[in-house]
Specification:
The protein has two domains: 224 residues, no CATH class; 115 residues, no CATH class. Helices cover 38% and strands 21% of the residues. It contains 13 helices and 14 strands. The strands form three sheets. It has a nine-stranded mixed sheet, with helices on both faces. The chain has a three-stranded antiparallel sheet with strand order 9-10-11, with helices on one face. It has a two-stranded antiparallel ribbon with strand order 5-6.
Length: 356
C-alpha cells in the first residue's frame, strides 16, 4: 500500500508521531519478553538510574492480574509478558497492606524518584488525571501504554486457572499466555504445575483465547484513548505487518514504539544499542498494520449472553453455547475434554481386553 493510501485509511493526523522498531539483542531475554522487549529494555534503564517501574503482574497464585511497583531487575521479571485480563488497580505493600496504584505512584513522585508507568491506555489516562488533580510534580514521570485490543474479564482468567488446577490436580507455579514456542507467533499458553506436569496449547485455540477475542470489558468497545487521545509519552506493542524480508525483522519478536511527546523521545535515547537493536520505522505503515492504535474492536451480538453464561454456567459452557461452527467447538473442546475422554476410553478398552 502506498503512502497516499495509508493516509486515507488512518483517520487522524499522525504526522507529529515518531515511530521506531526494535528488539533485545539477547535471544534468551527476547524469548521471555512480549514482542521485541522494548518495555523490558526501557524498564531496565529506569532501574539502572535509580527509578521504579509500575506494571502488571500475576498474583502469587496466578488467579488475578494486579499492579506491582519494582525497583530491581529480579522483580522486573514479574512484569514481563502480556496480561490479557483486567488488572486490579491495587498494590500489595509492606505488611500485606493494600494500597491503590495511584497513591503508591504519588509516594514515589514525592520521593523524587524516576518513575515509569506501563499499562493500558485507560490506566495511563487515569494516572495522568490523578496527577493533574493532585497537582503532582511529574517531571520524572514517564508514561507508556500498550497497544490494546481490550482485556477480557478477570472472571474469565480466574475460571481458566481454576479449571486447569482442578484438571491437573496441582497448583500452578508458572503461567504465561505469550510463550514463544515457535518464535514470535503463534503465541502459546504455557503452564507449569507443582507436580511437574505441563499444559501447553496455542492461545487462540484455547477457551481463554476465545474469550479474549470476543469478550472484553464493555467500555473497550468505545475506548476514549485511541488515535490522538493516547495520554502516554509512548505506545508499545508488536510490530505487526513486518515481514522477514524487511529491515528490522527478528523471528523471535519485534516491538513498535510510537512516540508522541518529548518525554517519549527521552525514553528512546535511553536505549543502549549494545543491548537493544533500534531503528526508525514508517509511522503510516506501522499504523496501517496496527489498527488498535486508533480503532476499537466490534462488540459481538452474543456478548451479553456470553457474559451471563460465564457467570452462571462457566467459561466452557459459554464458549460451547456461542453461535460458532461445530468445527470451532471441536477445536476448543479437544484440548480440554475430548482428549481426556479418548485416553480414558483407550485405557478402559485395554483393561477389558486383558480380562477377555
Amino acid at each position: 500500500m502506498d503512502k497516499q493510501n495509508h493516509q486515507k485509511s488512518i483517520p487522524f493526523d499522525y504526522t507529529r508521531l515518531h515511530t521506531y522498531s526494535g528488539y533485545l539483542n539477547d535471544k534468551d531475554k527476547l524469548l521471555k519478553s512480549a514482542s521485541g522487549g522494548a518495555v523490558t529494555a526501557i524498564a531496565e534503564e529506569i532501574i539502572y538510574r535509580g527509578g521504579v517501574v509500575f506494571g502488571a503482574s500475576y498474583s502469587k497464585d496466578f488467579k488475578r492480574s494486579e499492579y506491582r511497583c519494582v525497583d530491581n531487575l529480579d522483580d522486573l521479571e514479574l512484569l514481563k509478558g502480556s496480561k490479557y485480563c483486567e488488572t486490579a488497580k491495587e498494590i500489595i505493600v509492606e505488611n500485606n497492606q493494600v494500597k491503590s496504584v495511584f497513591s503508591v505512584l504519588e509516594d514515589m513522585l514525592n520521593e523524587d524518584r524516576l518513575v515509569l508507568f506501563v499499562g493500558l491506555g485507560c490506566d495511563v489516562g487515569a494516572v495522568r488525571s490523578y496527577c493533574d488533580n493532585k497537582r503532582l510534580k511529574t517531571e520524572k514521570l514517564f508514561l507508556v501504554d500498550i497497544l490494546c485490543h481490550g482485556p477480557t474479564s478477570a472472571t474469565v482468567h480466574r475460571q481458566f486457572v481454576d479449571n486447569l488446577e482442578k484438571k491437573y490436580k496441582s497448583k500452578i507455579q508458572q503461567f504465561t499466555v505469550r510463550y514463544k514456542k515457535e518464535g514470535w507467533t503463534p503465541p502459546y499458553i504455557h503452564v507449569e504445575f507443582e507436580s511437574g506436569r505441563v499444559y501447553e496449547t496455542r492461545f487462540y485455540d484455547s477457551l481463554y483465547g476465545f474469550a479474549f477475542s470476543n469478550f472484553t470489558r464493555e467500555s473497550c468497545y468505545n475506548c476514549k484513548f485511541k488515535g490522538e487521545n493516547h495520554k502516554s509519552d509512548m505506545t508499545c506493542g508488536d510490530y505487526w505487518g513486518l515481514t522477514n524480508s524487511m529491515s528490522g525483522w527478528n523471528e523471535n519478536g519485534v516491538s513498535i514504539m510510537i512516540v508522541k511527546t518529548e518525554r517519549g523521545e527521552e525514553l528512546i535515547k535511553m536505549l543502549d544499542g549494545a543491548n537493544y537493536h533500534i531503528e526508525e520505522a514508517d509511522t503510516a505503515f506501522a499504523l496501517e498494520n496496527n489498527h488498535m492504535y486508533f480503532e476499537c474492536n466490534k462488540k459481538k451480538a452474543y456478548y451479553n449472553q456470553f457474559g451471563k453464561d460465564v457467570s452462571e454456567r462457566g467459561l466452557f459452557y459459554a464458549v460451547m453455547h456461542s453461535p460458532i461452527s461445530v468445527k470451532a467447538k471441536v477445536k476448543y473442546a479437544l484440548p480440554k475434554n475430548v482428549i481426556d475422554v479418548l485416553i480414558r476410553t483407550k485405557h478402559k478398552a485395554k483393561k477389558i481386553l486383558r480380562k477377555v
